[in-house]
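User: Write out your own:

AI:
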Amino acid sequence: MFRPVFMRLAVLPCPPVAPSAKVAPLPVEAFEEMRQKLLEQEGRREQVHQYYKELSRKASQASHMLGYGEVEKGRQLVEEVEAGLAGLPAELKEKNPGRDGRISKLVEKQVGLRAQLEFYSKCRLVRKGELEVGLEVEDTEYLVGVIDFVADLAAYGMRRGTHGDVRSVAIARDLGAAVLALLMEFNFRGGSLRHKYDSVKWSVKRLTDLLYELSKRDGGEARKYAEEGSSGVSAEMMDLAEMKEVQGRVEAFDKDREMVMRSGRGEAQKLAKQSIFTMHRGELKKGREQVEGALAVAKKAHEEYVVKTPALRTGSFADCLEEIAEAMIFLVWMETGSVPPPSSIPLVEIDEYLGGLIDFTGEVGRYAVLNATKRDVQRVEDCFAVTLAITEQVTLLPNDGRLGKKLETLKNNTKKIENLLFELSINA
């Protein structure tokens, strides 16, 4: 039987060596402040998840009940979900810059369920002004709920067709066609609404096909409803004036979003990227002019559009601010050797600052390669020190969502510079 022999080693391995370069000054207090705010956000997201899990389950049950004829049980569940939404803590109802996606999803679901109940009881499309789902309904939430409702009419038509109820299938077809006619006047420009809109066309087509198939069995009765509008349902059974108002607001929002994208991605982001390339060439004065120009463009877009409509901040404008943060951090580090705190960069919030900070380490890596070609070991060590210090601080922050994905990028950037130092050591 083998028995391991333990003996005292004459020589023990040496511990890792700390970086010889002086660690770049970091805004440690700012990192602690960010950590506390991110922990608050994490707690809020967890709170939303608990509400969403419970209310979503009830909404799904209500959808099943309404879809299979248990209307009163479904109505009761719909009212329970609405009571739950109304009872949300005030901080979870905030819409600045935008409502939590899971809360919006619940509101959209409720709009669809209320539209279903309205269809059964009054044979018309539910009005946005009459909706009381526990929260104020946004225009896009209303449209998504209506679109989902019309998309579900195809399944409703099939179930009624199974029982030979040709007239109900025709009513569903005509209501869907009337909604489709209204939506065709919208200019959806792309995004989730544009993709969902296609489901309305499919649903109307499916209902038309169902009537054709029923005509083979029921003959004259089904043929009587072959043409749209034959059931007596028309666009007049909807609030056309209200839908026009919704259309105007949605298109105005889309127009403002395009202007923000043009200013952000088209001008500010381009200038910020150019400033980084300029600084890599050592032209810090010109780089500062470019990044300040990018910031001026972003400020103008913020004042003209984002202040009025905070939801426009998400997406391309936030990406633009992240690029500006990266350029500003790189500029200050090149000039002073220190990393600026988020409070020193106008408009930028925590997520944008952290995204820019991590992207900044990629530029530090490129700068390290440039200095490695000059055999400037000290400068490469400075690059390694700042990326290592940033890694240490960022790993203390709550690791979730986008930050979690970027953390791997940060670690890889640090490893690349460390590999450079190794290659310089063996080629010294």
